[in-house]
Amino acid sequence: MPRGYFITFEGLDGSGKTTQIRRLATTLEAEGHTVVTLRNPGGTALGDRIRSILLDSKSEAALGPIAPAAEMALMFADRAQSIAEIVLPALAAGSIVLCDRYTDSSEAYQGGGRQLGSARVLALHNAVCGSLQPDLTLLLLPPLEASLIRARRRNHRHTQTQGTDENRFEREPDEFYHRIYDAYARIAERDAARVVTIAHDHGIEEIQQIIHHIVTQKIPAHNQQPC
């Protein structure tokens, strides 16, 4: 059986990643593909516990400040579990895997935002993730200010309606997000063969069409490669 296809979605919170993953999964399934979706952090029992620590704004009140290196290590612990439990089995079964965040997020958020640097993140990626790189990364990078407004509004609404709080990162100052945005831009330039950037703040339907076009061009080329 041919190996499946691994697609990651990257970008700031509020960039529309989650919406576009859902829409792409629905479209691909309608076209006859088997699709597996997951998110980093989360998606496994261990990952959901890690997610609750890393994203809940109350975590540091209970645990004390989370050191940037500890934050990075927890992100990779989650990633290691999701690779073993979900990603590799799905790819072996020939599925298309759609993942909301992967190592690029760690390089942007911990490497850039927390100023740990790319080298430390990539060294941990090599140790934990081995050679597993996405076949395609879709980087949604609309203007920074619009993303921040949407993310903070969404998380406030989610707290009010669901009673859960994933606002820990959204409380960071704008300078933190400028560093993340710049880090994503550098990743896209460095890994241009893998990363496709959608930089304009188009409507949801227009972005969906752009993404579907990109994916339908990439998957046939992947399937024609010798195993």
Sum up the structure in keywords:
5-stranded parallel β-sheet, alpha/beta, 11% strand, single chain, Rossmann fold, 227 residues, 5 strands
Q: Could you explain how this protein is built, in words?
A:
- This protein is of the alpha/beta class and 227 residues long.
- The chain has a single domain, classed as P-loop containing nucleotide triphosphate hydrolases (Rossmann fold, 3-Layer(aba) Sandwich).
- Helix content is 59%, strand content 11%.
- Strands 2-3-1-4-5 form a 5-stranded parallel beta sheet, with helices on both faces.
- Helix 2 runs antiparallel to helix 4.
- The longest helix is centred in the middle third of the chain and has 25 residues, at 68-92.
- The radius of gyration is 17 Å and the shape is globular.
- The mean pLDDT is 90.
Concise description?
The chain has 9 helices and 5 strands; from the N terminus they run E-H-E-H-H-H-E-H-H-E-H-H-E-H. The protein is an alpha/beta fold and 227 residues long. The chain has a single domain (5-223), classed as 3-Layer(aba) Sandwich (Rossmann fold).
Query: Which sequence of SSEs, written as H and E, runs from N to C?
Result: EHEHHHEHHEHHEH
Q: How many domain regions?
A: 1
CATH classification class: Alpha Beta
Number of helices: 9
CATH T-level fold name? Rossmann fold
Biggest sheet layout? 5 strands, parallel
- Adjacency order of strands in the biggest sheet: 2-3-1-4-5
Looking at the overall shape, the CATH architecture is 3-Layer(aba) Sandwich
Note the beta-strand portion: 5-15%
Number of strands: 5
